[in-house]
Each structure stands twice: as C-alpha cells, then as structure tokens.
Amino acid sequence: MIGERFTRDARQAVRDAVKEAEQESASEVGRTHMLLALLGTPVLAGFELSREEVEDALRAARRKGGLSEADTEALRGLGIDVDQIVDSIEQSLGEGALATMVTRKKRWLFGEHKPFEPALKKTLERSLLEARDLGHNYLGNEHLVLALLAGGGLAAEVLASKGVTYAEVRKLVAGQG
Amino acid sequence: MTKATELASAAGDQDPKVGLRAVSALRRLLEQLEAVQVRNARVRGWSWQEIAAELGVTRQAVHKKHGGRG
C-alpha cells in the first residue's frame, strides 16, 4: 500500500490542500488547493513563486469561471472576449457571479472531510508513477508537484506562467537523486 | 501568452491544438454560464419546466444537472 510510503511532508501537503479548500469554502478539494499547499516545498524554492501572485492568478481565473489566461487567449482567437462576457454577467447578476464553481453531484466518501475532485485523485495517482519513474521508493512533495505539472489544467498553467515547467522540475528532482 | 493569440489568428483552425483548446475553454465557459443563469432563474422563482423550455431540454435533464441545489 503506497499510502505507507507517503513522506510526512506529502501527507502534510494533502492535509494542507484540504485546509485550503475549507478556507475557500470550495465544495471539493482540487488541484489548485494542492498547488497552494505545495508552494513552500523545497523543489519550488528556486522559482521565486510568491503566494500572493499565485493567489491573484487563481482569483482572476475563478472570476472567469475557472478559465485560465491561456483559455482566455484561445477564445480570443475565436473572437470571443471572455473579459467582456464576465463584465456583462457581473453587471446583471452581481460581482463574482461566474466565480461560483459548478458543483457536481457530491459523494461524501470520506465521512466528514471534503471530497477530492476527480482530477486531484488522478494527480495523486500520477504522483505514484512519477516516483516510480524516478526510481524513488517514497512519495514526496516533489512527485506531487511533477504530477500537478503533468496533468494540465489551471494549477499547471499558473505554474507555467511563472516559469515552472514539468521539464525544469523533473531535471531538479532527478538531479537530487 | 500573446504568442498564443498570434498562433490562433495566424493558423486559424489549422492548428488542431489551438482549435481544440478553444473548444474546451468554450465548453467550460458555457457550463458556468448555464449554471449561473439557471441559478438566477431559480432564485427568481422560475420552475424547472420553464427553465427547461428556455434551454431547449427536458425538465428531467435540467433538474438532474442543476437540481439538488434548490
């Protein structure tokens, strides 16, 4: 059972992600919460990531219904101005109208604590592969970071916009071993 | 990021990656817009039947997707 091989830091990161989701009153624990939980991890120390900047980027995306900067650009290419749509929705329905996440039917598998978004479960699975690929017999924060970067989505894009890419982090992690 | 815009306008829908990305973003935007508008209609006292009629789907479909939140 791989659960036993999670490092103490990795367990803490998962708990912190739950805490981030609670603070945000999110209905599920998602990859963006994991991202916030992992910001202080050593493998990211060289990238000058400020929590404030990351939070700003996430907030901006949330206001646009979870669309990232890259999504916005892609839609602009189609002639769709997301900012204008957000402005018009907010004018009629109030500020932050699009920010409320679409909630799926919830299944509370773990009793009292918040459910994990399917994409986050995939990320956790992926982190096992990352550890295995590197020949590591434990699962640490560095593997969680790699899995986040590999999975795409908003968390990976926010990291990429700050110059944190899968290739860069993989190099760092492999160098350690 | 401006690079993506250039790519999009230069390649138009020739680059599948850019085109697919836009479709995916549009779908997520649509889901959010639908959720927001349905919620607003419910707050204003619209019935599921009325909402379904406007969306062009069945009452069951709209209730299944957006029900549970009142």
Describe the structure in your own words:
Chain A has nine helices and no strands. Chain A is mainly α and 177 residues long. Chain A has a domain of 122 residues: Double Clp-N motif. Chain A is globular and about 55 Å long. By secondary structure, chain B is mainly α. Chain B starts with a helix and ends with a helix. Chain B is elongated and about 45 Å long. Chains A and B meet through helix 4 and helix 5 of A and helix 1 and helix 2 of B.
Give the helices and strands, then pairings:
The complex is a heterodimer of chains A (177) and B (70).
Chain A lengths: L7 H16 L7 H8 L12 H13 L5 H9 L4 H12 L24 H16 L7 H10 L2 H9 L4 H11 L1
Chain B lengths: L1 H10 L4 H28 L4 H8 L3 H8 L4
Helix pairs in contact in B: 3-4
Protein name (chain B): Helix-turn-helix domain-containing protein
InterPro entries (chain B): RNA_pol_sigma_r3/r4-like (IPR013324)
GO molecular function (chain A): peptidase activity
**Overall SS class of chain A:** mainly alpha
Q: Fraction of residues of chain B in helices? A: over 70%
Shape of chain B: elongated
Written as H for each helix and E for each strand, in order along the chain, the element string of chain B is HHHH
- Strand/helix succession of chain A: HHHHHHHHH
Q: Gap between N and C termini of chain B, in Å?
A: 40 Å
Q: How confident is the prediction overall: mean pLDDT of chain A?
A: 88
Rough shape of chain A? Answer: globular
Number of helices of chain B: 4
Hey, which two chains have the biggest interface? A-B, 26 and 24 residues
Question: Which radius of gyration of chain B do the C-alpha atoms yield?
Answer: 17 Å
What structural category characterises the helix and strand content of chain B? mainly alpha
Number of helices of chain A: 9
- Strand proportion of chain B, as a percent range, falls in under 5%
Total beta strand runs of chain B: 0
